[in-house]
Amino acid sequence: MYQKHGKDSVVPIKNIERELICPICKELFTHPLILPCQHSVCHKCVRELLMINHEDSFDAGSECSLPGSPRSRVPSPSMERLDRLVRSGGSRGSISSPGWRRGSVTPRVTTIPCPGCQHDIDLGERGISMLFRNFTLESIVERYRQAARAAVAIMCNICKPPQQQEATKSCMDCKASYCNECFKLHHPWGTPKAQHEYVGPTTNFRPKVLMCPEHEMEKVNMYCEVCKRPVCHLCKLGGSHANHKVTSMSSAYKILKEKLAKSIHYLISKEDQVRTQITELEQLINQTEENGQLAERRANEHFERLFETLQERKSEMLRSIEQSRNRRLDQLKGQVEEYQGMLENSGLVGYAQEVLKETDQSCFVQTAKQLHVRIQKATESLRTFHPAADPCFDEFVLDTSREETLLKEMCFGGVPDPPLIDLSNSRVYNEASICWRLSDDHLPTDHHVLEYRRWDGEDNGVWRATDRVYGPSTVVSDLEPDSRYSFRVRSCRNSMFSPYSPEVNFHTPPAPAFGFLFSDKCGFSTERLILNKRRDSVESVAGMAFLLAAERVQTGSYIGLDYIIGDTGISQGRHYWAFKVEPYSYMVKVGVASDTKLLEWFHNPRDTSSPRYDHDSGHDSGSEDACYELSQPFTLLTLGMGKLFIPKASSSSSVSTANAASGDPGSRMLPMPQRLGVCLDYEACRVYFYDADTMRCLYERQVDCSGTMYPAFGLMGSGKVQLEEFIATKRLTF
């Protein structure tokens, strides 16, 4: 038995068995229902868990009243969650409560976890009666059953044994199977039954028309694009889909069928890639098996070493205790013998008594002197009695609480998930501020370790690690300028390290970061520019002053730019700063300007209504594209409307695009970078503009650095410039 896919390709129906298994009962689907999340579950599996009365009849509309047969159950996590919900729902509800009625098919619990995606599914007040039968899946399951029992025929429902014949047709209207004779008998020509639809023998009788489960007498003829399910016109007119976007069923059928066909065609075209990846996965399975066995052997080795060390220490300690005990016993026993000698008629006293019996004076004196010394010592020992040894063995009592705690904290079943470096919040200058995030369901971690390496350095890309980090970010200092670095991070929990995060690469700027804030003193226009409290963001608003300036112009006009500069100047060295220009900005000019040029702009009167006046170009040409050869005390690059405009190339400037020297304006127009960087080399009198994310030089030019140079910004119309947090923080810290 084969399932057709397109004109030429066929798939053996037996090869798709895993797609036909209910995730709850682990058997072939029986009357599957489509949940709102688009996963399918057997009708009986959901009904048995949700219904108060298991004998209630199932009525899901005019075509949904076929119960399933009893089956054994295979426990699963989804079943356990459903059981808990049913038990908790049973304790909260009551048959006599409002909304519940005896014999009703409304479930006591209307929220269940989908066994496919584990999302909670709210079935609503009508419960499973609101769900569609998955007739397509049901038909495929039936074809699979027929292929599996190819030799088992479908018998006629009218014939009676033993004369029962094999069925040759099935009537979709009568929902019965017939042999040839019975079909002719029950569908005679000239009667309405002769017009019934019949197919080959089957046990799967699907309806001719799909009816709406909410409005049981209405056919579904539209498709809700919000809920992703068929609906009828009453659902759209005043039902739950009234405000949803719907399309005709024919249109939805065409679109979804084309999408599915294209997806299937794409997968089929990638069959070689799939087989290659299957081979890779099989190799990973083998590697996992081998590495798991290797990990077991290493773990055994580690614990064996621990056991050996503990055994050695144990033997040494027991030996020390035994030696100390024997020594003390010898000392105490010797003291006992000494004291026993002080008793009358025994030991030392008895010996002294015998000496006293000596009558020869010379012999007595010869022996008594030494004896008297011994008697004196015994007398002194008697007055100052001290045991010869301490019976307490406190010095051998071990405090292993710290070691026991360490051993108990060793966790071998909870390896933390690898963190992910957050590219949107990480910034790299001469210092790198690297941020990372953990998965939503991550286990608690003790600390993190960030590692980095320089690709083009003398250390040949050797990884260097930071100290332990106890938060989701850290700063790496002393990075080399204009160099490429890789970063990775891993987490640690109970001495168990997670795998490394995927490596991310950053390119450091060509110069150290220059910290500054926007100046609210020099030339700042409070009428048209809004500066935030931190002074790291400035926004231009087209207010009344802008309109009044434009009102004086009768013909074309260049309305003047509103300038704002950094609060710190540059008089030596190489410096780099970065910022973001909002994509909605009408026109923003960014770059550098000398203190003398700024005085001219801010303090000399200017006629903003002159159509020929443009102080930005360096002369009164009225042409933004004019090519100027002489070194100017300022350089500004124009951004706006989501674009970046490269000035015409000259002998003193270069650009990154090959066509920038041409006169075609389109060739000098680039997409606006998300972040723009500016580098000023004061001694070389040169300024560079970079895409701050990729560190690609977009434009460079000679500039006259005869005075103090300031970061300069000009805004016209609506627009906003936001300094990088690292740039502003560096200035605030200073």
From TrEMBL:
Ranges for domain B30.2/SPRY: 496-731
One of the GO biological process terms: acrosome reaction
Segments for region (Disordered): 60-79
Protein localization: Cytoplasm, Cytoskeleton
Coiled coil: 271-327
Span of domain Fibronectin type-III: 415-511
GO cellular component: acrosomal vesicle; microtubule
Keyword line: Coiled coil, Cytoplasm, Cytoskeleton, Metal-binding, Microtubule, Repeat, Transferase, Ubl conjugation pathway, Zinc, Zinc-finger
Alphabetical list of PROSITE patterns matching this protein: B302_SPRY, COS, FN3, ZF_BBOX, ZF_RING_1, ZF_RING_2
Segments forming domain COS: 356-413
Superkingdom, taxonomy of origin: Eukaryota
Gene Ontology MF annotations: ubiquitin-protein transferase activity; zinc ion binding
Domain (RING-type): residue spans on this chain: 22-64
InterPro entries referenced in this protein's UniProt entry, alphabetically: B30.2/SPRY, B30.2/SPRY_sf, Bbox_C, Butyrophylin_SPRY, ConA-like_dom_sf, COS_domain, E3_ligase_FN3/SPRY, FN3_dom
Domain B box-type, first and last residues per copy: 207-249
Biased composition (Low complexity): 65-78
Main location: cytoplasm
Family in the record: Belongs to the TRIM/RBCC family.
Protein name: RING-type E3 ubiquitin transferase
Organism annotation: Amphiprion ocellaris (Clown anemonefish)
